[in-house]
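Structure ticket #2291
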Amino acid sequence: MAAMASEVPLEVDLPQLERSLRHPREIFSYFMSLLTGAATLAAMFPLLSVLFLLIRRGAQTLGKATFTELPPAAMMPGGGIGNAIAGTILIVFIATLISVPIGILAAVYTAEFAPESRITQAVRFAAKVLTGLPSILAGVFAFAIVVMVTGGFSAPAGGVALALLMIPTILLTAEDAILRVPSRMREAAIGMGATPTQVVRKVLLPTALPGILTGIMLAIARAAGETAPLLFTSLFSDYWMSRTSPEFLPKTIGDLMKPTASLAVLIYNFSGSPFDNQIAMAWTAALVLVVIVLLVNIAGQRLAAHYHR
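Resolution: structure written out below.
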């Protein structure tokens, strides 16, 4: 009987399956699709407008000298932002060296060793609060504990300020990535006799690495564009960090503990200048900064995809 029933052809009312714009549900679906597409275009319009304006205005003075020369003085032709690019890379590098170990170790503790303790709850709450911390407060804090102690503005002071902004992002994303590791992988490693440290080092961190890298790249991208913390910590400089052109990096600790240029502060200073050459250089610096942040995000996505595979 079952075989006979399966051989009976099913009658399908094809006209009822055909889509018709006269049907209320089809009209509603079509309208919502149009509304969603329009909202998407509206959200992309400011971004595309900013990119178009940056390329149009910033590319006018873009050239080899942009990356090899010092910022121009008022009414002086030429010049570049080489020292600001090198200073930005150095400050963000220092911030990354500080924030990545702290953020990952804290994430391992909160996700693996004490996920329900009061300390973990306090750390999570503090991290979520710090994600919304005004960046200028991080600069004031770093000014008090670094600039006032060392007696001057410097790249390490700027790195400390940016690290305060990077740690919450790295901690929360790393914790989430570690918690997403399947529990059976932990249990298998423990069943084979692995210690808790070995489980973390050889199972959890390698498996969660794509998510951790994504969080690190997001934190770096945010830190690279911050201005307010650097006004209180690294300030600005019209010279190379080694004080001898064309050396990009500091040669001694003394050079490192001096005011250091950065792209964000250069944009801030030159954008309010009454001189056309400095305003043009501010547009170029903004374009370069956007490209650097874009490359960092692309690199993070590629690395995450590579380790995921």
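Closing remark: The two ends are 50 Å apart (CA to CA).
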